[in-house]
Amino acid sequence: MEETSPPLESLLLPSIADVSVLSLDVSHEAIHIDVCSTAAGAACPDCGSESTRVHSSYLRFPADVPSGGRLVVLQLRVRRFFCPESSCARRTFAEQMPGLTRRYSRWTERLRSTLAAVGLALAGRAGARMARTFGVSISRSAVLRLLDALPEPQVPAPRVVGVDEYATRKGRVYGTVLVDVETRRPVDLLPDRGASSLAAWLAKRPGIEVVCRDRAPFFAEGARAGAPQATQVADRWHLWHNLGEAAERAVARHRPCLRVLVPDREGQADEPAPPEEKADSPWRSERFANRVRTRHATVHALLEAGHSRRSIGRQLNMTHRTVKSLADAAKPEDLFRGQWQHNRTSVLDEYKPYLDERWDEGCTNAWKLWEEIVPLGYRGSYGRVSAYLREKRTSPRPVTAQPPAPRVVTRW
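-> structure tokens emitted (412 positions)
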């Protein structure tokens, strides 16, 4: 029995009706397909009247999805028809092939859907780069326009909705975000965080069974008014957050009691601190101190070897004043004697006992402590308080055992 090959239309354009392929030209770079419509007429896009009276024809060259690494270009013979309706404002119109072309488009419908799918997955810049890899030149703005033209997806009404606020301008302008808790996807955004807006949104969706929210009173009022049938629950994050705050306050309040239960380590309370960690050390930076000691020893070694101060300056690339100060100092500590005074008075001295007491109680927040001592008469800056607490935080800890900090217990 003789086998018949399928027509080119079913192979090249399987989902397009009323289309005839006239010729096919394949080269190393592109595939050119000559196509025309086989429909008897077309409908006017304005009035919808069918017309078979041809006015003229012209060629269109829309790009199609590449095939086998080659560009696919369609050569369409498009007819222009007269509109038979005398009352219609449009006198002539060009035919469109459903599923293949649309007005003013340089791409076929399947290439447009392919580029839109790439844009949905990769967005503008990355989508344009990916499109160029399979031979379609497109800008990131064109990819974004394709995404804007897509219809809004049909989102099913949520059963469990989460309600929270978001900031468009933090501290000033807030809105409400609604999330489908089961799919973890945002559902809608409201322009404010008022109870009336939330109630109106919930009233349009009677299928909502659970409203998951924080403890804001306006959200509670809106949920009661808009979804009286729904069960209101506190979300997991706020439960943990509130529990952590309560635990931290309780531990900070009872921390002096824990100090009695922690015994001191015997034999370590009177151990002297290492020389490099003494509080009265004149060196602010041990690295800087070592560098000065090295330069001092080098200068004195050259002096003992018989070199003059001028030759030492040339050899070590030092000024005459630097060589003189190093040579006149018997030891490195003499260079900066009296430069840093550790017994200077500070506006914070009067409030240090209070800060130490609050520190021992477990309050280590510099901003909070600064707000506490300002009503007591402190007129200094927040930076001074922060520096003092930073020194306490980074200084070597005493050898006596301390009870755990409130935040450590809260993490437990």
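The radius of gyration is 41 Å.
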